[in-house]
Amino acid sequence: MARFLSILILLITLAMFVPLVFAVIAMVHGTHLPMRSWLFPLCLIAAGAVLISILSKRQIPMQLYLFAFALWLLTAAYYWMQIFAVR
Q1: Structural domain total, the chain
Q2: Count of C-beta atoms within a 10 Å radius of residue 40
Q3: Which residues contact 51 (CB under 8 A, 6 or more apart)?
Q4: Could you give the CA distance from residue 27 to residue 71 in angstroms, rounded to a whole number?
Q5: Contact call for residues 45 and 16 (beta carbons, < 8 A)
Q6: pLDDT for the residue numbered 86
Q7: Which domain holds residue 34?
Q8: 19-64 residue pLDDT tens
Q9: Using CA atoms, how far apart are residues 9 and 11, in angstroms rounded to an integer?
Q10: Three-state SS across the chain?
Q11: Are 36 and 67 in contact, with CB atoms under 8 Å apart?
Q12: Radius of gyration of the chain from Cα atoms?
């Protein structure tokens, strides 16, 4: 179970680099971007790192961890839905 969760966290965290790279490319070309276009993926990457750290140390009960994981997953899904709704 822990291995599956860590792989899922890794995949979603890596997926957050895609909008982050697009934001950096747009900033290099001189486009003004809203703060959420680069700050939100960074926060999700940081939250993924914290979830991996907690999972590896097993400091909290698994039920609480799964709740935090589900909340993180819903937040990432919401972000991706907002990206595709705009385009």
Answers
A1: 1
A2: 21
A3: 9, 65, 68, 69, 72
A4: 30
A5: yes
A6: 59
A7: 2-86
A8: 888 888 888 888 887 877 778 888 888 888 888 887 777 777 888 8
A9: 6
A10: CHHHHHHHHHHHHHHCHHHHHHHHHHHHCCCCCCCHHHHHHHHHHHHHHHHHHHHHHCCCCHHHHHHHHHHHHHHHHHHHHHHHHHC
A11: no
A12: 15
- Token pair, residue 82, equals 């907002």
Measured CA to CA, the distance from residue 52 to residue 12 in angstroms comes to: 12
Distance CA 14, CA 28 (A): 21
How far from chain centre, in Å, is Cα 37? 13
Task: Please state, in angstroms and as integers, the Cα–Cα distance from residue 62 to each residue in 29, 45, 52, following that order.
Answer: 45, 21, 13
Close Cβ partners of 16 (under 8 Å, ≥ 6 residues apart): 41, 44, 45, 48, 76
pTM above 0.85, yes or no: no
